[in-house]
Amino acid sequence: MAKKTINDFAQMVEKGEKIVYLTAYDYLTAKMQEKAGVDMILVGDSLGMVCLGYDTTFPVTMDDMVRHCQAVRRGAPNTFIVGDMPYMSYQKSDEDAVANAGRLVKEALVDCIKLEGGGEMIASRVKAIQQAGILVMGHIGLTPQFMGQIGGYKAQGRSAAAAMKIVDQAKVIEEAGAFSILVEGVPTAVGKAITERAGIPILGIGAGSYTHGQLLIYADMVGMYDNFTPKFVKKYANVGEVLTNAFKEYTEEVRQGQFPVDDEHTYKMSDEEVKEFLVALEK
Q1: What is the pLDDT averaged over residues 154-171?
Q2: N or C: which end of the chain has fewer CB within 10 A?
Q3: Residue 115: how many CB atoms within 10 A of its CB?
Q4: Bridge partners (DSSP) listed for residue 140
Q5: 55: nearest Cα among 235, 241, 225, 231
Q6: Total-model pTM
Q7: Which residues carry out catalysis?
Q8: Beta bridge partners of 214
Q9: Between residues 151 and 84, which one has the greater pLDDT?
Q10: Cα-flanking dihedrals φ and ψ of residue 52, to 5°?
């Protein structure tokens, strides 16, 4: 499978083909997603909650992102990979933004970086990173790094004024040079309006069916992350239950002496070698 490029995504949009987008944070998951044929993988700062056990994405560092992006790249060498810019890796200045985006490209070989927010400050960061030769994906709507300002993890754009603000943000981010925009947690009408007005691929996570593609956090859609489940998630499997049951069965068998079974699960010696070994023990 050849890795898709921005030209491929543009052609998919033109043909009306949906872009399939999932998160991954490790080698094995990325490997399976590439086998499944996903178009694009996001190494999201959601790894802070899904992998590292934080309550929010705020503690995630650039070193965290680089390490996880490297693992995903090794697992999915032929898939377009987007690396998330963690909190305070780009907010301070254009220079910081370019340097940290460059780390994800240079050290982890991502194809694109993603940053959250709208407005002139974010537009400046997008423009600077893009001018450095790095592809940028915007992220508007429900933006976890701005949850203090937006009132927590809740849907955005539910009033006409709020919806128009998000539509305006999409325009600003596109004009700044983003190659694509992720729209999260907005009513279908808002996702549709942004998509119809955009000249770039619009991807949605909880933004309705009209966007050019869909993203889900993989741990949500396979039932591994059960702290909470957003309204927009469809569960395609309950891997969490399968794993928990397997761990329970293993625990019971070890405690009861049922595992391992020597004839099935251990390495063997020839009878002659066993005799020689037992003689050596007696010397």
Answers
A1: 96
A2: C
A3: 25
A4: 183
A5: 225
A6: 0.95
A7: 184
A8: 20, 204
A9: 84
A10: -100, -10
From the list 134, 28, 33, 32, the residue with the least C-alpha distance to 85 is 134
Cα separation values, 230 from 59, 153, 205, 227, Å = 21, 9, 10, 10
Q: Which residue type, as a one-letter code, is found at position 48?
A: G
Amino acid identity, residue 27? Answer: Y
Contact, 81 vs 33, CB < 8 A? no
pLDDT tens column, 185-204: 999 999 999 999 999 999 99
Whole-angstrom distance, CA of residue 52 vs CA of residue 60: 9
* DSSP SS3 for 267: coil
Model pLDDT, residue 151: 75
**Residue type for position 211:** T
Cβ–Cβ under 8 Å, residues 6 and 179: yes
Q: How confident is the model at residue 39 (pLDDT cuts 50, 70, 90)?
A: very high
81 token code pair: 């990979």
Tell me the sheet residues that pair with 137: 114, 180
What's the one-letter identity of residue 130? Q
Nearest by Cα to 220 from 197, 200, 239: 239
Q: Which residues contact 79 (CB under 8 A, 6 or more apart)?
A: 1, 3, 4, 30, 33, 34, 38, 39, 40, 41
User: Do 185 and 174 contact (CB within 8 A), yes or no?
Assistant: no
Q: Cα(122)–Cα(175) distance, rounded to whole angstroms?
A: 12
* 8 burial via Cβ count (<10 Å: 0-12, 13-18, 19+): middle
Using only C-alpha atoms, the chain has a radius of gyration, in whole angstroms, of 23
Task: Using the structure block, give the residue that is written with the tokens 């009513």.
Answer: 187
Could you tell me the sign of the dihedral formed by the alpha carbons of 154, 157, 161, 166, in that order? positive
CB-facing half-sphere around the CA of 141: CA atoms within 13 A: 24
How high is the pLDDT of residue 153? 76
